[in-house]
Design brief:
Length: 439
């Protein structure tokens, strides 16, 4: 796909940047190690390290396979740079694998250079990083890799291999801990009538704490935090420690997304037969990545409880169709709300905050919105007559139970909107559908 000019993932500006650099001769793709490494000074290993489902640790198969393949064809003096997130000790293991697999003895070095970019803002994070972390036993290799980053304006932290590997896990685990901590605080806020959004603002202004990663919601997803917290737990257990905080971080996160489902059950009494619209499917905005996305677990829980699910995401629909075959996917956010008894905002794409909520209210059977990311203007929605429930906001407490309304006749007014017309058949029963066809 890359050689044909196609991007296998969505990341803002990625396609144009890759294509420009290919065109200008700075970047090429190959699946042959020999071709890629024939005159290389550096070989970056940037392969996945998914969760090993036997014990929750990191699965190092791809890293080890890459090391073996590099050893077969590498030139003298190659610096093997490990970018993959790997448990402490992996750099030494890579060195050992290469040594054991080399056809002839050669001088080489292994440097750990963990990556801190976020999906969705990958380029800014790469080009303006807070720091570059390098770990190696050989000073010459460390300095050579530091030279690659000399144009960046940021500190370069030089350390040994195990410490560099540890820094990566601790950075992700610290951020994940803040999120689970705030999700726990959100649950308490709801019970006592406090507003977690203001709590985050209030404590985040303390410079020792900072405001980032204090947003309560439906928990962290993606390919990094969930697996890295689990891997650090396993690393601790393997080392004879009992990582209680990290285990709780993971446990809180696994359960938090179901709070949105419980709020619906509290609101309606039962989920069976409800039509629920989901706004957003990706694990966060600006990506099409569904890995560990709360939306998948929420949709599955709703379907298992007998609800009908309609969903829309600006970028993740293609991937979602494969994972959630029972969900009806809609052309836009309005169509996902059309005739729904409730909507759950799962991913805080900016376009959802900019919707015309008066129209949304008219489209819905019941104006119930569960704001899973505290992204919407709760005062506006409440003033428009919505039953708004956020995550850990005082406005979400003491909400009266709602009787599910029958579908209003006025839905007929909306079938004239072209973008909705194509969606009508998905959720209406046969009687109304034929009335619409006749109309
Ligand atoms: C994360 C780290 O932020 C990067 O530094 C790291 O390089 C990357 O993992 C990785 O190890 O490769 P990423 O997974 O792309 O990046 O996304 P984040 O922006 O960190 O968000 C992760 C999840 O946390 C999302 O589901 C997001 O919705 C959630 N989140 C984030 C919250 O629930 N609350 C917050 O306050 C912030």
């Amino acid at each position: 796909m890359l050689r044909d000019g196609h991007m296998p993932i969505y990341e803002p500006t990625l396609e144009e940047r890759v294509m420009r650099n290919v065109k200008e001769g700075r970047l090429r793709f190959t699946s042959s190690y020999a071709d890629g490494l024939c005159d290389a000074e550096f070989a970056f290993i940037a392969v996945p390290t998914p969760t090993n489902h036997v014990n929750g640790g990191a699965d190092l198969r791809y890293v080890e396979a890459a090391a073996r393949s590099i050893a077969q064809v590498m030139p003298e003096g190659l610096i093997v740079v490990d970018k993959s997130t790997v448990p402490v000790g992996t750099g030494d293991r890579v060195r050992q694998i290469i040594e054991d697999s080399l056809p002839l003895p050669l001088r080489f070095a292994v440097v750990s250079n963990p990556e801190f970019l976020r999906e969705g803002s990958a380029f800014a994070d790469c080009m303006q990083p807070d720091r570059v972390v390098l770990g190696a036993a050989e000073a010459w290799a460390l300095e050579a890799v530091a030279g690659l980053y000399r144009h960046l304006e940021c500190p370069i932290i030089r350390t040994d291999l195990p410490t560099a590997e540890m820094i990566k896990y601790v950075a992700n685990a610290m951020l994940a801990t803040r999120i689970s901590f705030m999700n726990e605080v959100a649950a308490i806020c709801e019970r006592v009538g406090a507003d977690v959004r203001m709590v985050a603002a209030g404590v985040g202004t303390d410079r020792r704490i900072g405001r980032a990663f204090l947003d309560a919601g439906l928990g962290y997803g993606g390919s990094c935090f969930p697996k890295d917290v689990k891997a650090l737990v396993q690393m601790g257990l393997d080392a004879g420690c009992e990582p209680e905080i990290l285990q709780s971080v993971d446990r809180v996160n696994r359960e938090v997304c179901y709070r949105a489902v419980s709020k619906l059950a509290d609101t309606f009494g039962s989920l069976s037969g409800l039509t629920v619209g989901l706004w957003g499917l990706a694990f966060k905005p600006d990506t099409d990545d569904l890995r560990e996305a709360p939306a998948v677990r929420i949709a599955q829980a709703l379907l298992a409880a007998g609800a009908h699910v309609r969903a829309y995401d600006p970028k993740a629909m293609a991937a979602a169709r494969e994972v959630l075959p029972e969900v009806a996917f809609t052309a836009d956010a309005y169509s996902a709300a059309h005739l729904a008894d409730a909507v759950i905002l799962v991913t805080d794409w900016p376009e959802f905050s900019a919707l015309d909520f008066a129209t949304v209210k008219e489209l819905m059977c019941c104006p119930v919105v569960i704001d899973g990311r505290n992204a919407l203007d709760d005062r506006l929605l409440t003033s428009l007559g919505f039953i708004y429930r956020g995550m850990g906001c005082c406005s979400s407490a003491h909400v009266p139970a709602v009787q599910r309304r029958t579908r209003p006749e006025k839905v007929l007014e909306f079938v004239h909107a072209p973008e909705i017309e194509t969606e009508v058949g998905v959720s209406l029963d046969g009687e109304v559908e034929s009335t619409l066809e006749a109309a």
